[in-house]
Specification:
It is globular and about 45 Å long. The protein folds into 2 domains: 1-30, no CATH class; 31-160, Dehydroquinate synthase-like, alpha domain (Up-down Bundle), CATH 1.20.1090.10. The model has no long low-confidence stretch (mean pLDDT 95). It is mainly alpha-helical. The protein is 70% helix and 0% strand.
Length: 161
């Protein structure tokens, strides 16, 4: 769908995927990436989907150290054809993150700089954004405990990318 907007089958499949994602979110809530993306949208006027895409790899990289996450990410890697059942959970989970990084590049998800965000203003805003992200409650749904310093570190990696 991203490569050819006229591909009706691909667009239908993306619409179905978006619907299913919405059903999942409605029934389970959201986690760190959504909490962190809201302040980027509020302060820098980045659409929520774009800010989520900017953050997703770093947020999942952070969550990878959470309880049971390595096995879960490994399973996803197998399901999308990036890993074999014989791969260790550590190896397979890293393959998943690699695939996610390639996907965001293929989809041309912009960096903060490419989007036109003033990186100095972003750095100055990180403390407030981290407080706002925590206050949203979304980070608390992450499989790993999240503190303000973790969020600031993720914002730093995003800014320096």
């Amino acid at each position: 769908a991203a490569k050819d907007g006229n591909d009706r089958t691909a667009r239908e499949q993306m619409a179905l995927a978006a619907y299913e994602a919405g059903v999942c979110i409605n029934n389970s809530s959201v986690t760190l990436v959504h909490g962190m993306s809201r302040p980027i949208g509020a302060l820098f006027h980045v659409p929520h989907g774009i800010s989520n895409a900017m953050l997703i790899t770093e947020c999942l990289r952070f969550a990878l150290d959470g309880e049971g996450a390595e096995e879960r990410f490994a399973k996803i890697a197998e399901e999308i054809g990036e890993a074999e059942k014989t791969d260790s959970p550590s190896c397979a989970s890293k393959k998943f993150l690699g695939a996610l990084e390639r996907l965001t590049k293929t989809l041309e998800v912009p960096s903060l700089r490419e989007y036109g965000i003033d990186l100095e203003k972003f750095a100055v805003s990180e403390e407030k954004m981290a407080s706002d992200a925590l206050a949203s409650g979304s980070p608390a749904n992450t499989r790993k405990a999240v503190i303000k310093e973790d969020i600031i570190a993720i914002y730093d990696r995003l800014r320096l990318a």
